[in-house]
Prior knowledge:
The structure is a homodimer. By secondary structure, chain A is mostly helical. Helices cover 35% and strands 2% of the residues of chain A. Chain A has 15 helices and 2 strands. Chains A and B meet through loops of A and loops of B. Chains A, B: Pfam families: CCP_MauG.
Amino acid sequence: MSPRSVFLLSTALAFAAPAAFAQEAADPTATPEAAVAEAPGSPDAELRAEAAEWFQPIPRAAELPSGRPMTQPRIELGKTLFFDPRMSLSGVFSCQSCHNVGLGGTDMLETSVGHGWQQGPRNSPTMLNAVFNAAQFWDGRAEDMAEQAKGPVQAGVEMNNTPDNLIETLQSMPGYVELFQAAFPGEEQPITFDNFALAIEAFEATLITPNSAFDQWLMGIDGAMNEQEKRGLRAYMDAGCQSCHAGVNFGGQEYYPFGLIEAPDASVRPEGDVGRYQVTQTEDDQYVFRAAPLRNVAMTPPYFHSGVIWELEDAVRIMSSAQLGTELTDEQATDITAFLGTLTGEQPQIVHPILPVRGETTPRPQPISLPANAPAE
Amino acid sequence: MSPRSVFLLSTALAFAAPAAFAQEAADPTATPEAAVAEAPGSPDAELRAEAAEWFQPIPRAAELPSGRPMTQPRIELGKTLFFDPRMSLSGVFSCQSCHNVGLGGTDMLETSVGHGWQQGPRNSPTMLNAVFNAAQFWDGRAEDMAEQAKGPVQAGVEMNNTPDNLIETLQSMPGYVELFQAAFPGEEQPITFDNFALAIEAFEATLITPNSAFDQWLMGIDGAMNEQEKRGLRAYMDAGCQSCHAGVNFGGQEYYPFGLIEAPDASVRPEGDVGRYQVTQTEDDQYVFRAAPLRNVAMTPPYFHSGVIWELEDAVRIMSSAQLGTELTDEQATDITAFLGTLTGEQPQIVHPILPVRGETTPRPQPISLPANAPAE
């Protein structure tokens, strides 16, 4: 996000929010209670007080939990890398291909299409607000966004590149040499795989979506949610959804078996994907996944790690029976779905980067050659 | 491009250019002579006067030659469509995939990769400054950008969609219904394949790259090109390159046989692609192609319709022998290559659009399903 966009978002939020909150929001150590405006006379005061025990609004800007620096040159470099298809062996796919800033950070496919038109085994999770997650990937196998960024670029089914080829590519372009020098000043050899990941992490940490209707309501604006959405919030908390989907990001913090009470249909939870068990080899982790963060969830079908459920209300029903053993009434399911729609925040306004020009020694893209057999460009 | 970006570019150009030109530039009927500042005392006056007989600077803003309106809602809709991968059957490819605004409007592949990982037969041409071309595609088979926009979306090797599925997709999303209504006010059914193409055309006509070093020099700033680049311009005109590559876009106007004097190597001009002959079935059109526009050419390797030449200087040598029967000296080839680098203009600053949320009846993407056999996301 450009500094100007950040400024505009900040201004918009400061305008919408009570002044007390506007100062608290940037402080990640602030307690939820402190973040919510006191409005004891409001008809929503009771519901809001209960909600504030579970949820926090998205702040105007985020810091990396590691404390690693988010300098503007590092963010700019990260944005450039994120949008550059030459980070893949084929030259076809960039991070943006599967984590589209225009599609809520997803690709809206059941599972992503990668190198050689292979389809990956799991639905592409969003990087929007991922800075608020305790760990990354559906099974939490990457402890932060920097570690995550090293995955898809090497995965044979995704970008199919190697760190060596990636570094050679970056070093061959004077534009990238300058960007890395500016982002990692004083380092003798700034172009490294680690720094590649750190820059992407810094950029991704700017991709947050503040000022959703729910956040406005949580900060004291009664009219930011309508009656149905408030009923939905009530039903969400009565059913117990927030025991897994809470916090700033409505999830992304803990691991739970998918099918805690009742195993979902095998089409929704394919037998072959045992989730976190693949990471820990611990029997208790069979079919265990990270509770998906629900911010912007109405924008990002299809749902679940399998990506086979296209309607949010269907996903709500499945979660309710599989995780909570609850059969929701039609009204409850509809109301909760309406409530989840209030979690859609302001989407990042990203100016598409102009990518560095290739150099004479830049490795050429290596898509698979197939015979030309169709209309010409 | 946002109104603000247009404004900034205009401001930048007005600042760099003599005031007399700043007023002329927007007038497409202005003669080249009128567009160039008079500077009779300049050491470059003679070279500039000769260049002005052949070349015109890119104006600050372009109009469609057809006179069709370029309203802001139409441009916004066009931008949204341009970046939306759901315009392809698979949900994987958008216009932006092969005409990347960050890569000079190309994909930097020899030939593009499309649906099912097929490779197309020709190198992806840029849409930057395409509004200045007399016709579109390598063989000029589309008379304007609107007609062009209907091609890739239907090509089996590219986006592999059908107009019917496209229209159904657009009609199913309330966000698109609104965008089309705003872009085509008063039309009873604004979502049509024709209007889809007209909106993309309007957006693409904003994708121009003014204020290159050459344009600044042409407008009277001696120091905008260095001595080598000026020698390169001299050599370019002495060799006769401008007989095909002239005008605002340094090409894009006429058709010529590739191999006018001497047929290039079959690796550069594959036998199976007979160019414009496929369009006209006229013997004279064997291996005839549109003279490629050379604006931003240093940014957009690889070269030629076959995309097999990766170094600009190699392309210069091949063209010189194939089209002009001239063997350039090493210095001439290097100087001309340096001169071509001055044709790189200001690249469009595009805020990535936030794409409409799908509706309940939106057709689902249809990539080919392959077995999942790789690391999970």
